[in-house]
Design brief:
By secondary structure, the protein is an alpha+beta fold. It has helices at about 1-60, 60-65, 70-105, 150-160, 165-175, 180-200, 200-215, 225-240, 245-260, 270-280, 290-310, 355-375, 415-485, 495-525, 535-555, 575-590, 620-625, 640, 650-660, and strands at about 120-125, 130-135, 135, 265, 325-330, 340-345, 350-355, 375-380, 395-400, 400-410, 535, 560, 570, 595-605, 610-615, 665-670, 675-680.
């Protein structure tokens, strides 16, 4: 085994050494050993346990199907118990809220929505069993049919109220003499007052209204209105017409409060109609908040009055034998819109009527939601006479509140149940396969991350080698030139000057390289800072280009510098911008020399100010364009590899540009050249003025 490992090692080294050399090939082999060791550990600790668990999960599918029927029974009973519990909770909350009110001495017949959303009317009976609040039972008194003479006079008076109001007033007086029934007399007095108001005789109209209120206030007319209420409405109209708004407002508001607090008669619409008319008259006069409260109270009481008329025939259910503070339920009857809860408190008995339809609709909605959650089960509410499916899983009546309603839970159908089982089986297998897939993808991802880390380590190793090579070249040149001068091997004159110039040039190149390495190290540590202030970008660009011009001209490159006039000042660090230009021009010198031309251009743009550096050199491969600003990146193109470089110059350029709030992009085509474009914003970057 050891011999085989040695042969494999030599074979791998021989293959890798062709491209990377023997030393780097050995480094790659060591990295590969680390990856293989990690992969083996991952397979033993993760993949094998995952496979075992997947096998166990798949084998448990059959066992799970055996328990499905029992689970359906449990779920069916849970659905019925849940709905029954929800129904019980509705009335439990109502009872608690009602007892709280009674203990506080508050009436439970008002603000019914606070007690239960399904409560529609509440009644209080006294110790004798008579209805005491908030309504009266209708009186058997009936207004007789008026005589022919009264009808004739009344028709004539009504027809002339607008055209001849004085004659109409006299006709209404005749109508008062034509009958002795209080309701008809009161109606005639009201007509006379109306005619006097139309005849602009407000004082006389108010006098007749005062007589009407004094003698017939509680008399109801043929349409069910109390004459006292109608006289108040008309008196307010007279006062408003006379401009006496305060009196009219006071009279109407007082009457509204009295009517909203009084007992209304079941089956009569007089009181709510009077309140509605009074509130319409008070619109724009009374306080808006008071009007809103009054309208809410009117709406609630009117709804109760309507419901009370629907269930008035069931009020005989109430009797005095209800225990103190104990609620008794009268379940919904098939012919009734409501169900009842009755409680005794002291000498009073309270009867609460709930809407069966609203309660049933909400329960049906709850059942529909349960059907959505339990896809393989169907729950249903069945009214009397509706067929209940055979062989239900769970069945019960919703008593005592809805004793005639049946709740049943059953499978949707046999095919649906089989489909549910198949779905569960498929779901379990899918979950297992998903877990295995995620594990495999995770393993691949980890392997990819390891490969990236190996590649990063290789790039760092290449960076160290490239830096060493870059340092060796200028140091060698400086040493050789210096030794030649030291040993007197150089002829005095121009040859000596060339050696000195070469030493200075190589020293400057060495200084730039060291600065780049130190700056990149500071950037990686997050310690690099730039001092920005308003400055002229043209000046920074000009100095950087002039400093690089000798190296460019040495390679016979034409330098074109285009600087605009009146360029707005930008927030920048001049030395950092000079370093950006130096690195870009250094790249143009190395990779663009074949084109013999470099163009530096500064211009205003929609985004601020742009700085571009273009050459007509070898260009950048399309697959390398997206990576040129990455740390340590060096193209694999042999033509690029033959030129010296560390792979950090453009990374430093990108960081400096982003620190100035700008962005940099590159456009390039192989064999045609490259253009780097930097955009600087006019606004100062965040933190400008401080060290950035």
């Amino acid at each position: 085994m050891a011999v085989l490992r040695q042969h494999l090692r030599r074979w791998a080294v021989a293959i890798l050494a062709r491209r990377r050399g023997e030393v780097r090939a050995l480094q790659d082999i060591r990295h590969l050993y680390g990856v293989l060791r990690f992969g083996g550990a991952f397979a033993v600790l993760m993949l094998l346990p995952t496979g075992f668990l997947a096998w166990q999960a798949v084998s448990s599918v059959g066992t799970e199907e055996l328990t499905l029927d029992a689970e359906l029974q449990v779920r069916g009973r849970a659905v019925t118990a849940s709905l029954q519990g929800e129904l019980e909770g509705i009335f439990e909350r109502f009872r608690d809220a009602t007892l709280v009110r009674l203990r506080r001495g508050e009436s439970p017949t008002a603000n019914l929505g606070e007690l239960s959303p399904y409560l529609r009317a509440a009644f209080r009976f006294d110790a004798t069993g008579e209805l005491a609040a908030p309504f009266d039972l209708p009186s058997p008194d009936v207004v007789p049919e008026p005589s022919a003479r009264w009808r004739s006079v009344a028709r004539r008076a009504a027809a002339t109220e607008e055209s001849e109001p004085r004659a109409a007033a006299l006709a209404w007086r005749d109508a008062q003499q034509a009958t002795t029934h209080p309701a008809l007399v009161a109606e005639a007095i009201l007509g006379e007052a109306r005619a006097l108001r139309a005849a602009d005789r407000p004082r006389e109209a108010e006098a007749r209204l005062a007589d009407l209120y004094a003698d017939y206030a509680n008399i109801r007319g043929r349409r069910g209105f109390r004459m006292g209420d109608l006289s108040v409405l008309m008196r307010a109209d007279v006062r408003l017409k006379e401009g006496d708004t305060e009196v009219a407002q006071s009279v109407l508001e007082t009457r509204v409060e009295q009517l909203l607090a009084s007992r209304w008669t079941i089956g009569r619409e007089g009181e709510p109609a009077v309140v509605r008319r009074a509130l319409a008259t008070l619109q724009g006069i009374s306080d808006p908040d008071w009007l809103a409260r009054a309208r809410r109270r009117l709406s609630e009481r009117h709804a109760q009055l309507y419901w009370a008329e629907l269930v008035s025939s069931e009020l005989d259910l109430v009797n005095s034998r209800v225990p103190q503070n104990a609620f008794r339920v009268h379940g919904a009857r098939t012919d009734s819109p409501g169900l009842w809860e009755i409680v005794r408190r002291g000498d009073s008995v309270y009867a609460f009527s709930f809407s069966v339809q609203d309660l049933f609709d909400d329960l049906r909605s709850t059942v529909a939601r349960a059907d959505e959650l339990e896809g393989d089960l169907v729950a249903g509410l069945y009214l009397p006479g509706e067929p209940v499916p055979a062989n239900p899983i769970s069945e019960r009546a919703l008593g005592p509140w809805l004793p005639a309603v049946t709740l049943a839970v059953h499978p949707a159908d046999a095919a649906g149940l089989a489909a549910s089982r198949q779905q569960r089986r498929t779901m379990r297998v899918a979950v297992v396969l998903t877990a295995v897939f995620v594990t495999v993808v995770g393993a691949i991802w980890v392997a990819r991350m390891i490969a990236i880390e190996v590649d990063a380590a290789r790039q760092r190793a290449d960076f160290a080698a490239n830096v060493s090579h870059e340092l060796r070249s200028p140091i060698t040149q400086i040493r050789l030139r210096g030794e030649a001068l030291q040993l007197g091997l150089v002829d005095p004159g121009s040859d000596t000057d060339r050696h000195y110039d070469a030493i200075v040039h190589e020293a400057e190149r060495l200084s730039r390289l060291v600065d780049n390495v130190l700056d990149f190290s500071a950037i990686e540590r997050g310690a690099k800072r730039y001092h920005m202030r308003p400055d002229d970008l043209n000046v920074a660009v000009f100095h950087a280009v002039e400093a690089a011009r000798p190296a460019l001209e040495e390679r016979s490159m034409e330098v074109v510098l285009e600087l605009p006039e009146d360029l707005p000042p930008l927030w920048l660090d001049r030395e950092a911008i000079g370093q950006v230009l130096t690195n870009l021009l250094s790249n143009a010198t190395k990779y663009g020399a074949s084109g013999g031309w470099v163009h530096i251009r500064v211009a205003e743009s929609d985004r601020g100010v742009s700085l571009s550096v273009s050459d007509r050199g070898m260009g950048i491969a399309e697959e390398d364009v997206a990576q040129v600003f990455d740390d340590f990146f060096r193209s694999t193109d042999p033509e690029v590899r033959r030129r010296r470089g560390t792979g950090i110059g453009l990374a430093i350029v990108r960081y400096i540009v982003e620190a100035h709030g700008g962005d940099i992009s590159v456009e390039s085509m192989l064999g045609q050249g490259t253009t780097f474009v930097i955009n600087f914003p006019l606004a100062p970057p965040e933190g400008a003025g401080d060290a950035v």
